[in-house]
Amino acid sequence: MSGFVSLVGAGPGDPELLTLKAARRLAVADLVLYDALVAPEVLALAQRARRFFVGKRAGRPSMKQETISALMVRAARRGDRVVRLKGGDPFVFGRGGEEALALADAGIPFEVVPGVSSAIAGPALSGIPVTHRGISSAFTVVAGQPAESCRRVLSALAPGGHTVVVLMGLASRAEVAALLLARGWRSATPAAVILGASTPAAATWTGTLAELGIADLPETDPDAPGLLVIGEVVALAERIAPYEPALRVGAEVVARGENMSRTDPAHRGIREVAARVGRISRSDPAPRGIREVAAPMERISRSDPALVGGGIDVVAG
Ligand SMILES: C[S@@+](CC[C@H](N)C(=O)[O-])C[C@H]1O[C@@H](n2cnc3c(N)ncnc32)[C@H](O)[C@@H]1O
Q1: Number of domains comprising the chain
Q2: How many helices and strands, by DSSP H and E, does the chain display?
């Protein structure tokens, strides 16, 4: 009896961005082979499976692609239901295509379960639509490495009217910026660096193309993955971002207002969130005007009903 392999995208990090189909495949899997950047909560869905990390970890040799394919083929021939779990979408710089070909060549039945790619989710969660009517009618997603193929793609792009998303490009952001500037992109073109999108390490830098190569990036988990976005759409983040991204762990949520009374809806809302993350009890004395919540374990979303309903002004995150 032959088993079955599902090449599954795990999304950009937040377990809630996993698809229902992915969750169902994990629930019945016998074997899960997973990469870095897959959240523990997602792996926990594979309760009955043996789970093996087969991804790259900084500074350590990673398992060879042929070995991973051979593992999948062997397990499927044994009759296992195998989930090959990859960050984002399996076919976006995830070598999922190579694994699909290896399975096809070996005659193993398989499927692809697409995932939410960081190339789109990262910008979206920072308030950047990769296309926007009248501003950007296309977007290019390119890998920052190998540098030569990145250069080739970027050199072919006419300046402006277009959004460029660079994955695996943090280390080469100075070269990327220099190349686009040399190609005639305006030095004032808005640019962003998005780190750990949808994860507790989420942090975003925005500035201009001229600053992209030299700017200090926000401090966050040094292992957080990051991507670059270049194009006029980045300027929309100023207006869109405050309503979308999740706050970081340890972020400060501040309710502004002088002499806020205990019954003020904003005050009630922030205390509700605070109580939920265990920082203060609902019965603590009313703070005057300003209170903060730092969530040690749990993330607070800017769209949390308690914040929105309470009219909270989120000023840091
Ligand atoms: C090997 S590629 C895999 C991309 C993945 N298949 C996808 O669709 O998102 C890994 C790169 O994706 C980007 N990336 C993945 N998750 C990210 C996240 N949560 N925030 C920012 N960038 C992320 C980074 O550029 C990282 O170096």
Answers
A1: 3
A2: 11, 10
Index of the ligand 1 atom closest to the CA of residue 116: 8
pLDDT tens figures, 137-157:
999 999 998 889 999 999 999
32 CA → ligand 1 middle, Å = 20
CA of 86 to the centre of ligand 1 (A): 10
Which residues are paired to 207 by β-bridges? Answer: 191
Ligand 1 contact, 89 CB (< 6 A): yes
Residue 166 CA to ligand 1 centre (angstroms): 10
Is residue 217 domain-shared with residue 288, that is, in the same domain? no
Q: Average pLDDT in the 223-228 region?
A: 94
Local confidence band at 283 (pLDDT 50, 70, 90 cut-offs): very low
**Whether the predicted pLDDT of 315 surpasses 90:** no
Query: What value does the mean pLDDT take over residues 246-271?
Result: 46
Residues acting as catalytic residues: 35, 56
Say what the pLDDT of residue 78 is. Answer: 96
- Which regions of the chain does DSSP assign to beta strands (E)? 4-9, 31-34, 50-53, 81-86, 110-113, 139-143, 163-167, 190-195, 203-208, 226-230
Which structural domain range is residue 263 located in? 247-317
- Token digits for 218? 């926000």
Domain boundary residue, one of 65, 85, 116: 116
Looking at ligand 1, which atom is closest to the CA of residue 167? 25
Res 131 pLDDT > 50 = yes
